């Protein structure tokens, strides 16, 4: 199904998506998110400032003009994006060459271009050095004539997505972010053979895309004596006993699938820092940019709950994969391929219950049970509004939304399933550990700290989380206070209604991130090493993997029935079916 309410879905999304021009055009459905659009040029201003910063820094590093530097940046990009980038370069080059001198401040350049303005209050600047720039502006009155000839800049609020070249890149992004069901799915069972666009990166591979009864998690038809109907790679019969292997190895194994209903943390939002650090820009770091975009800048294949491949992107992802799925598979090889990542950037309790949950694929009579994690750990207190507290989810709504989702799950999950409801995070860990560190964009000149970034995003009213990404300690504390209230509400829903669900057992767990940070620092690490450097908001690959370990240990100790027994036939399955990929 289509998720039509883009406006809310986007709230937990890093603002750096916007920098990639997603939210700019009026015609763009994603942009109907007033908070993301912001004031003073909002995301157009931030996008312009980042691009100009990178070009200018590249020019400095390679001792070349900004026009050459922009050509260089375009040349690093993969084919499908390179063309539009070159069109953009041809358009903007003559303007930039007039505007950007060696010491030009990107804030000033983007003010002159009118992507940044003061329509909604005081001027927003990410760089602090403004004295020189004011003079610089005054020396360049001619520029105005040059770029004002272009209609793009005549509107009071020019949009980056309307600029030639950039327009095509925006369209590419729009297409990728529009749907939350697989786009290539011939039989309509919500499983795909393609990797991206909500395909196998997100859900197990459909081993027969002409048959909707054949997909990961189905009850094997006739014990898969001839064909692999549940896509776990196990099929055929044992010649010695003439019994089907599914019957011998899996029938009594308490096999189960795994799914997560979550936000950008569960989807594993990750923008490579190498894309935002001029000293690291190269062709190699953009090699898989299209793949990244087609997966909504998420990395579900390496995530805490549904990670299922080794990290083979060492240029842009740092750390190993570990996941609940991986461990469930190791515990019982019959679980192969039975994972669904139903997480969406920006998801909160309301969008989950009105939209996103319907994307989970499970049938009570045809499929086997699942372990489902409900993990909406921040967006209900995160928004970009200056009056942030007024826009947080209330306790009543939190209860109603989560109950609605759980009651829906009770209608699709096969009997003997399990649901784990997670509380909200304490986002104070972000500011506490990042505030005086240097952001990738400021590395060349040591001139942008996370505090400066957070203040800038709040000034533009495009922060993914004003409450926690805030230099005011009282605001951060109050945000945590509300998050705790909402966690308590979730706990109460589980206590009050837990017994009423017919088809699953349910447990509440606190958000494991606090324990993850403790575990890491106790073993000698530093907390900032677990946080995404570009957005200063999400947990990175190391954090994702460590979260899987912490959650798993928790379940082994307290809720072993949630993960099921070890399958004594794992060894035989390996011997006969190898990596279980042969039917795929
Ligand atoms: C930069 O390039 C200019 C001419 O293109 C040259 O004169 C100058 O010496 C170069 N500077 C450095 C540091 O290489
Ligand atoms: C990941 O790497 C390990 C060790 O190199 C290997 O045993 C395993 O099969 C790999 N897993 C996948 C899914 O490729
Ligand atoms: C599950 O599959 C059965 C048999 O095809 C079908 O009748 C039923 O409607 C399905 N249930 C749901 C919730 O789609
Ligand atoms: C679900 O399974 C349990 C135990 O296997 C059984 O007691 C219960 O009656 C079943 N519930 C339904 C609705 O079939
Ligand atoms: C911090 O936020 C609180 C609560 O909104 C406010 O009362 C206080 O004035 C703020 N402090 C500063 C220094 O802005
Ligand atoms: C925020 O809460 C922490 C921990 O409770 C406390 O130590 C700190 O003083 C509080 N800060 C403010 C500004 O209220
Ligand atoms: Ca399919
Ligand atoms: Ca199928
Ligand atoms: Ca099978």
How do you describe this structure in short?
39% of the residues lie in helices and 5% in strands.
Description:
It is globular and about 80 Å long. It is built from 23 helices and five strands. It is mostly helical. It starts with 5 loop residues before the first helix and ends in a 7-residue tail after the last helix. It folds into two domains: 170 residues, no CATH class; 313 residues, 3-Layer(aba) Sandwich (Rossmann fold). The N terminus is likely disordered. It has a five-stranded parallel sheet with strand order 2-1-3-4-5, sandwiched between helices. The structure holds 2-acetamido-2-deoxy-beta-D-glucopyranose (NAG) (6 copies) and calcium ion (3 copies). The site of one calcium ion has 10 residues, from loops.
């Amino acid at each position: 199904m289509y998720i039509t309410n883009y406006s809310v879905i986007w709230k937990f999304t890093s603002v750096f998506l916007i920098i990639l021009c997603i939210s700019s055009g009026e015609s763009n459905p994603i942009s109907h998110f007033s908070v993301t659009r912001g004031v003073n040029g909002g995301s157009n201003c931030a996008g312009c400032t980042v691009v100009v910063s990178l070009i200018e820094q590249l020019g400095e590093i390679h001792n070349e003009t900004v026009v050459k530097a922009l050509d260089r940046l375009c040349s690093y990009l993969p084919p499908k994006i390179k063309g539009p980038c070159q069109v953009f370069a041809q358009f903007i080059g003559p303007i930039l060459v007039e505007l950007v001198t060696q010491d030009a401040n990107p804030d000033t350049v983007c003010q002159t271009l009118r992507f940044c303005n003061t329509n909604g209050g005081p001027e927003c600047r990410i760089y602090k050095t403004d004295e020189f720039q004011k003079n610089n502006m005054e020396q360049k009155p001619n520029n105005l004539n040059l770029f004002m000839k272009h209609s793009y800049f005549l509107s009071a609020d020019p949009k980056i997505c309307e600029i030639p070249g950039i327009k095509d890149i925006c369209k590419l992004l729009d297409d990728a972010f529009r749907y939350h069901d697989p786009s290539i799915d011939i039989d309509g069972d919500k499983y795909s053979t393609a990797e991206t666009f909500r395909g196998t990166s997100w859900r197990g591979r459909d081993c027969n895309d002409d048959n909707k009864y054949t997909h990961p998690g189905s009850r094997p038809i006739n014990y898969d004596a001839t064909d692999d109907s549940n896509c776990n790679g196990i099929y055929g019969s044992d010649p010695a006993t003439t019994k089907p292997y599914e019957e011998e190895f899996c029938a009594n194994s308490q096999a189960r699938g795994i799914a997560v209903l979550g936000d950008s943390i569960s989807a594993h939002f990750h923008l490579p820092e190498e894309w935002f650090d001029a000293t690291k820009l190269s062709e190699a770091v953009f090699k898989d940019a299209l793949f990244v975009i087609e997966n909504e800048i998420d990395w579900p294949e390496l995530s805490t709950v549904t990670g299922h491949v080794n990290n083979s992107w060492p240029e842009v992802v740092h750390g190993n994969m570990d996941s609940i799925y991986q461990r469930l598979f190791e515990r019982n090889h019959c679980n192969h391929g039975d994972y669904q990542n139903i997480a969406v950037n920006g998801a909160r309790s309301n969008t989950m219950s009105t939209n996103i949950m319907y994307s989970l694929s499970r049938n009570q009579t045809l499929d086997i049970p699942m372990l489902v994690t409900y993990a909406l750990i921040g967006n209900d207190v995160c928004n970009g509004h200056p009056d942030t507290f007024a826009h947080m989810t209330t306790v009543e709504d939190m209860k109603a939304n989560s109950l609605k989702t759980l009651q829906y799950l009770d209608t699709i999950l096969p009997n003997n399933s399990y649901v784990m409801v997670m509380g909200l995070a304490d986002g104070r860990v972000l500011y506490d550990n990042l505030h005086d560190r240097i952001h990738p964009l400021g590395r060349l000149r040591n001139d942008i700290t996370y505090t400066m970034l957070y203040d800038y995003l709040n000034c533009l009213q495009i922060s993914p989380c004003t409450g926690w990404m805030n230099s005011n300690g009282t605001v951060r504390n109050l945000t945590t206070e509300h998050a705790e209230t909402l966690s308590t509400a979730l706990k109460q829903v589980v206590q009050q209604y837990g017994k009423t669900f017919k088809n699953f057992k349910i447990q509440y767990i606190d958000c494991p991130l606090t324990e993850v940070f403790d575990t890491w620092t106790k073993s000698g690490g530093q907390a900032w090493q677990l946080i995404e450097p570009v957005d200063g908001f999400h947990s990175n690959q190391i954090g994702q993997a460590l979260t899987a370990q912490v959650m798993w240990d928790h379940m082994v100790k307290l809720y072993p029935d949630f993960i099921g027994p070890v399958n004594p036939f794992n060894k035989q399955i390996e011997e006969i079916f190898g990596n279980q990929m042969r039917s795929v």
